[in-house]
Structure formats: structure tokens, C-alpha cells
Amino acid sequence: MFKVVFLTQWKWSRTAVLAGVFAAFALPILSVQQAGVFAGPTRELPGHARRLLDTVQTWGIAYPLLALVLGVLVAVTAWAADHRGRHVYALALPVPRWHYVLLRFAAGGALLLAPLAALGVGALLASASVTLPPGLQAYPVALTVRFGLALLVAYAVIFSISAGTPRTAAIVLSAIAFLVAVEVLAAAVHAPIDPLQFLGSRVLSGPFGIFTGRWMLIDV
Q1: pTM value?
Q2: What is the pLDDT of residue 37?
Q3: What is the DSSP string of 33-56?
Q4: Are 143 and 217 in contact (CB under 8 A)?
Q5: DSSP state of 219
Q6: What pLDDT score does 31 carry?
């Protein structure tokens, strides 16, 4: 049964997955495409290592953004057809609800392995294509592992929200809108209330903290 679920989800999300594979493979290679100027005898000149780090760091924001977008798209498409059909197909299957949800989750996770592998291959090729100045090292494996964790967090959170009814999603969005309204009103009356900052600090100190910090293929 997993094969059937996997193939149906592949049909629904293949455009996003294939685009993610291409982007994940190209991203680390593009991040070092200008690093050729540091190769050869000039690589030990002062300032070249800093320029290399700056070049790589400018691409760092793209890794968590790509992981977030891919996780959201695959999670949403996993339940889009069920929502359109009012979950009649899922309820008609001779399996418990939790088993069906687990199959859906596993199928989406398996699809995300493709862009994860593409990033790993791209990071290895990018690391091998540049001569690093003394004191710098490439971290293709660490970057790939972090990208995989970010994919998992984004996918799991959005999947759990999408697994519910549209009413559940509406409640979540309404809660966010309420917090934004409180934030605006508090700022208007100069009240010492900052719910978004409070919530953001709690979220970013938890699993979502994987999206923050430095995403560097090459570092000291």
C-alpha cells in the first residue's frame, strides 16, 4: 500500500520535488563559482580568505529558505486531494486512520530524500572544485545533515497542520492574525506587550532554531 501512496504523492508533488532537486544540487556549486579567484598561488594573499567566506555566506540564506519551501510544498500537496474529496477515499480504506497518516508522512519524507541527496552531491562536488586558503575547511556533510533536519522540521509541522480539516487551518491562521492585531494595538497605545517577539523567541529557541545561524559550506 505504501507504493500506491508514494506514487500518488509523487504525481501530485513531482514538479516541486524536481525543481527542489535541481535547486539543491546547484546551490552549493553556485556558492563557490567565484572561488576560482582564490585558487593557485594567490590564495595565500591577505583578504582572500575573507572574500571567499563572504562569497559563500551570501548564499547561506538560500539553504534554509529552500528547505522551508520544499517542506511546505510537499506537506501541503500530501493532503490537497484528500481535502478536495472530503477525506472520503481515506475513510473508505481498510486501514486505521493513524496508519493512513503514517503512510502519507512516510511517502512525503521519502520524496524529500531526493533533494537532500542532490544537495549532498552538489556540496561534495563544490568542495572538491575549489582550492581553499589555509585555515578554511569545507563541511559538505554537516551542511547536508543540517539541511535534512530543516526539511524534516518544516515538513513535519506543516504536515501536522494540513492533516486536519480546513477548519483547523483556519483556527491556526486566526490565532496568528489575533497576535498580529494585539501587536499593532499595543504599539498604538504604547503598551509594554510584544506577543510576536515572545512567541518568536520561544519558537526560534526550539526546533525552528535549525533555520537560524550561519549556513556555510566553507568556514574556519
Answers
A1: 0.78
A2: 44
A3: TTGGGGSGGGGGSTTHHHHHHHHH
A4: yes
A5: E
A6: 84
